[in-house]
Amino acid sequence: MHQEIINKIKPELDKVVIFLEKEMAKIRTGRASPSLVEDVIVDCFGQKFPIKQLAAISTPETRQILIQPWDNSYIEGIVSALRKTGTCANPVVDQEKIRIYLPLLNEEYRKNLIKLISEKQEQAKITVKHWREEAWEEIQERFKQGEIREDDKFRAKDKLQELIDEYNGKIEQKTEVKKKEIME
Q: Taking a C-beta distance cutoff of 8 angstroms, is the pair 81, 43 a contact?
């Protein structure tokens, strides 16, 4: 009975880790990556689209992102959206393409990125804590209703904490890898 409560939050904890991975991919290291710009929202003909729906995105060089819009009429909107993001990059229109040259990371910018990563890590841990509390409340409620014995309640608490520790470890590992990439 208590195991089903714990199993019920596992997919939610997986979503937290997946979301964190996506957020980490958006934070630039010394290398260009399509993930830095693909989800930037572009206002195009009164509708909003992520760049990945309007263009092909590639990285022909280590510090360059190349955006090739499906239609030339998207260029102005894409450039405008990129300028609003403040990614420390200035988009350059090159015929029907948009090039972004990423500058080298300076020490101050690296520190700001590390701070941003730490904030995202903390947000993920808060969400994991929320799911732990929700599961624990349900376990306690079932105990009060007589559906779970007292020794099973404490066993469930231990299993729940093991699961939470496992996911906090995953969060820790993902953020440490990203911090290391930035400091290289």
A: yes
Confidence tier at 161 by pLDDT (50, 70, 90) = very high
Domains of the chain by start residue, with CATH: 2-25+106-183 (1.10.132.20), 31-101 (3.30.1360.40)
Phi and psi dihedrals of 151, rounded to 5?
-65, -35
C-alpha distances (whole Å) from 59 to each of 18, 50, 75 are 23, 18, 18
How far apart are the C-alpha atoms of 121 and 136, rounded to whole Å? Answer: 23
- The whole model's pTM is what? 0.67
CA distance 20 to 175: 9
Quick one: which of 83, 72, 90 has its CA closest to 42?
83
